[in-house]
Amino acid sequence: MSFASNTSSAGRYRRQLTPKQMEAEVFARATRALREAGAEGGIAQARAIADNRRLWDAVLDSVLDPTNRLALPLRAQIASLARAVLRELDAEAPDAAFIIEMNEQMAGALWN
């Protein structure tokens, strides 16, 4: 399969996803990066942690935005979760299993 053909298939796949499913895919990608980096360590692990931090920063910013249309109690719960994950990501030795679990929970909730 050529690169152009593979890229075209990926584009068709993305067009079939809902916006929430696309968000779930971002969490899945961040989770995959953490898992793969766990074995490698070093720069791969640092990159995966930084990518996850950016993801959860974006989640927190989104739910704190006053124009966000989610119900206020749900926004508060997601903000609390995001802060917990960000605290873990800022730890000297982040608990990758915890972060992976939170990513998977968010992806699962978004996919449904």
Integer count of domains: 1
Shape: globular
Low-confidence stretches: none
Please report the distance between the alpha carbons of the first and last residues. 31 Å
Largest sheet: none
> What is the number of helices?
5
Mean pLDDT: 90
Report on this model:
The protein has helices at residues 3-16, 19-40, 42-64, 72-89, 96-111. It has one domain (19-111). The chain has 112 residues and is mostly helical. 83% of the residues lie in helices and 0% in strands. 18% of the residues are buried. The protein contains five helices and no strands.
Question: What labels describe this entry?
Answer:
cilium, 5 helices, cell projection, about 110 residues, flagellum, about 85% helix, single chain, FlaF, mainly alpha, globular
Please specify the SSE layout and strand pairing.
Blueprint (H helix, E strand, L loop, with lengths): L2 H14 L2 H22 L1 H23 L7 H18 L6 H16 L1
Provide a concise account of the structure shown.
The chain has 112 residues and is mainly α. It has five helices and no strands. The model has no long low-confidence stretch (mean pLDDT 90).
